[in-house]
Amino acid sequence: MTETEGQDNARVIAGRYRLRRHIGGGAMGVVWEATDQVLDRTVAVKQLLLPPRLTPEEAEQARKRSFREARLAARLQHPHAITVFDVADDDGKPVLVMEYLPSHSLAEVLAERGSLPPAEVARIGAHAASALAVAHAAGIVHRDVKPGNILLGADGTAKITDFGISKAADDGTLTGSGRFAGTPAFLSPEAARGEQPGPESDVYSLGATLYAAVEGRMPYGDTDNQMALLYAAAAGRVAPPRQAGPLTGVLDRILQVDPAVRPTMAELATELGKLASLSAPAKAGTAPSEGSRRRYVWAGAALVVVAALVVVLVIMLPGSTGTGAAPGQSTSAAPPPPSSSADPPSPTTRTVTETASSTSTPASPSTSASPSAGSATQVVSEYYALMPGNTDAGWERLGPVLQAQGKSSYAGWWSTISSVSIVSGPRMVDADTVEVTLTFVKKSGSRSTERHHLDMVERDGRMLINRDSGAL
């Protein structure tokens, strides 16, 4: 559109929808925030754009198709789909009047954050799949599922939008132009080959969208060459995911070239919902401060310190070879792990480490209780690969000291983190301690890089992370 925003502020469509500000758009249309002057509510108005250089006959066919598909979109009512309130006429062009959701598209979020953790992607996917499943049951195929058409509200709700190019599966076609609808980067193989897309095509496109969200890269490669994308899409040539974690198996089933072997959208919604439930739901608001995070970790661990003091006291009773030192000052207590940092651990961290270490049972001369470098570092790598999306599996990899903090506090803190990545390490710094440097990105948008010393312990043949000295 050529009008300025100030001029458009005065425009009223269909006698009731006053345009206020431009909030988005693309090849299919321009979206405005507007006021419904009859119901006195904020709405989103999408002015559908006709493709350029159409013949008069093609333009008329496109207008008819747009009006009809707008009416189809209005048939869909679901909490995870943007509701279409009205289909208005703006000088012969169809206008969708829709629910207004203060939000960012998944495409915008990915442009800012790069990728999202598997549990968050599963939650977004479950929301979108549940709405698409209802659409499919009503005979509506979206045909353009992509990150730009999934909106994320401030409370974490995901809603799918833009059914403007969808059509009912039981309706005839008015296209007549041979053009395909959809975005090449997220097309299913059959759609890329020019075949009629069905519900299975939406399943594939949602899978390609989730792949991009969790991997931080396009399923068919990062290229602007549309023909290359179409060629890769037609062949279903998708690189195996590397950081999807628990989503890997689901993505593999969704991104099958043969539509017949993909799950239905309803089945996908159920499976993604189960994966999302493995982690605490996303919470709106500001993540806790670093000091609060340490209190979460060590509040429960303080209980273990008390227990350790009791154990030391029992050891010092008659019959023990101890010197009668006060609890917590046993001369047999192991020293804290050495740190390569110029800044020593805080006094609180050092006290907890020294006292809790006093409960360790010394290894016999013939048997070493220390983990090997390979096994301990592998456990640490695998642990952070799970986080923050799978706190249940992460919890099973913790030793008794860290588990003393309580699972709810543990999951609660991880729910404030959007991603964690290993910057350096993990590496052994002594027989029982692994050093790893991590970058945490919080859901509030803040980022911190921290070096942690993790004390390892072996229980029932499994290597566990028993203590975390926190940021050093």
From TrEMBL:
One Pfam family cited in the UniProt record for this chain: Pkinase
Q: Does the keyword Glycoprotein apply?
A: no
Q: Where is the composition biased (Low complexity)?
A: 323-333, 348-374
Superkingdom field: Bacteria
Which InterPro entries does the UniProt record give?
A: Kinase-like_dom_sf, Prot_kinase_dom, Protein_kinase_ATP_BS, Ser/Thr_kinase_AS
Chain residue ranges for the region called Disordered: 323-374
- Example GO molecular function: protein serine/threonine kinase activity
Q: Where is the Protein kinase domain?
A: 17-278
SMART domains per the record? Answer: S_TKc
Q: Where does ATP bind?
A: K46
Q: Which Gene3D superfamilies does the record match to this protein?
A: Phosphorylase Kinase, domain 1, Transferase(Phosphotransferase) domain 1
Top EC class for this record: transferase
**What keywords would UniProt list here?**
ATP-binding, Kinase, Membrane, Nucleotide-binding, Serine/threonine-protein kinase, Transferase, Transmembrane, Transmembrane helix
Query: EC number(s) in its UniProt entry?
Result: 2.7.11.1
Keyword Kinase belongs to the record: yes
Q: Where are the transmembrane segments?
A: 296-317
Compositional bias (Pro residues) spans?
A: 334-347
The protein's name is non-specific serine/threonine protein kinase
